[in-house]
Each structure stands twice: as structure tokens, then as C-alpha cells.
Design a protein that fits this description.
The chain is α+β, with helices and mostly antiparallel strands and 76 residues long. The protein has one helix at residues 2-17; strands at 22-25, 32-38, 44-52, 59-65, 73-74. It has a five-stranded antiparallel β-sheet, with helices on one face.
């Protein structure tokens, strides 16, 4: 989780410092741990997840970033 927090922290800090620009969301369905979205459009800027990348696979800590949120980047 230390590596996950190191990746998420810059996005979380940015969302905390600019609450009129960003929405910070906590845990949600589908294994989401944290997510940062643009307030104006609702577009996801960063998301940290813990669930299988491939159907039926093991849970994996991974993240998604713009411009392609469909890509899964493993934390370790």
C-alpha cells in the first residue's frame, strides 16, 4: 500500500488544494480504493483499484490515469 499511496498522493493533494476543480472519492464498487475526477466534466483523472485485471484472475493493486483509463498499470 505504500507504493499505491506514493502514486495516489500527488493527485489527492491536488484535489484537496483545489476542491472547486476536483472531486475526491473514496472506496466504491468494483474494488476502487480512491478516485479523483474533474468537477466540471466528471472525467476521471486518477483511480487506484484492487481487483482482478483479467476476469477470474487474482486481485491486483493497480491504477488508471489519463489519457487512457482502460490501461491497467500494476503497482508491483
Amino acid at each position: 500500500m505504500t507504493k499505491g499511496w506514493a502514486l495516489a498522493r500527488p493527485y489527492v493533494d491536488k484535489a484537496i488544494k483545489a476542491p472547486n476543480t476536483y472531486i475526491l472519492e473514496g472506496a466504491g464498487g468494483g474494488g476502487r480504493i480512491i478516485q479523483v475526477r474533474l468537477r466540471k466534466t466528471g472525467a476521471v483523472v486518477f483511480r487506484l483499484d484492487y481487483f482482478p485485471i483479467k476476469t477470474g484472475g487474482p486481485n491486483v493493486l493497480h491504477y488508471h490515469i489519463q489519457p487512457n483509463l482502460k490501461n491497467h498499470y500494476k503497482v508491483f
